[in-house]
Amino acid sequence: MSFFNRQAAEQFDAPTAAVEDISGDYTIDPAHSRIGFSTRHAMVTTVRGHFSEFAGTAHVDSKNPASSRVELTIQTGSIDTGVADRDAHLKSADFFNADENKEIAFSSTAVERDGEDWVITGDLTLNGVTKPVTVTFEPTGSARDPYGNIRIGFEGGTTINRKDWGVSWNAALETGGVLVSEKVKLEFDISAIRNA
């Protein structure tokens, strides 16, 4: 059992399983999903944020995971850390250059299973740079919602170095270290609806 499920088991009701085989084509439900991030500020605290506008699809093949695929686009300008001045700085050329780079995109190149987990490798395009990343997702259940939709859930995360995508702005601290960590944790809480 991974960290995500251990935490969930302690904090939430037990997951449900509406279907045994989750194979099919799905569309991410942005109203019930979260794409977030966290990083260290001044090396003493963690700052968290998320993107409020994104869309994605997935083809899930339980019997042949390699046939599965995921596509995701995020509107760069939808970044939200809860502080307007910080968000404006993050949208500027110092970081995401949101006026020039309106979308962040992920396209899977390989999908495999590791026990219950799904390991998805793909190309992440950010700030005009494309690099591979691997994200491990843990299934969090399946359900039939009150509208008759089959939903599946996944939680996942990975850590990237933002400098690999040319996001390199920083400021040195008098005490040593830097104002913003180069490492950024990406966090995914996904609810996807099976296409009719």
Give an overview in words.
The protein has one domain: Lipid/polyisoprenoid-binding, YceI-like (Lipocalin). It is mainly beta and 196 residues long. Helices cover 9% and strands 50% of the residues. The chain has helices at 3-11, 84-91, and strands at 24-28, 34-41, 45-51, 54-60, 69-75, 79-80, 103-114, 117-126, 129-144, 150-161, 183-194. It has an eight-stranded antiparallel β-barrel with strand order 1-4-5-7-8-9-10-11. The chain has two helices and eleven strands; from the N terminus they run H-E-E-E-E-E-E-H-E-E-E-E-E.
Please sum up the structure shown.
The chain is about 10% helix and about 50% strand. The chain has about 200 residues and is mainly beta. The two termini are about 30 Å apart.
Poorly predicted runs of 5 or more residues: none
Secondary structure: number of strands: 11
CATH class equals Mainly Beta
Query: Which strands sit side by side, in order, in the main sheet?
Result: 1-4-5-7-8-9-10-11
CATH fold-level topology = Lipocalin
Total number of distinct structural domains: 1
Number of helices: 2
Query: Which whole number gives the mean pLDDT?
Result: 87
Query: Beta-sheet strand percentage?
Result: over 45%
Instruction: State the separation between the terminal residues, measured CA to CA.
Output: 32 Å
Largest sheet: 8 strands, antiparallel, barrel
Using the alpha-carbon principal axes, give the shape: globular
N-to-C order of helices and strands = HEEEEEEHEEEEE
Known CATH architecture:
Beta Barrel
Residues in helix, %? under 10%
CATH superfamily: Lipid/polyisoprenoid-binding, YceI-like
Rg result: 18 Å
Structural category: mainly beta
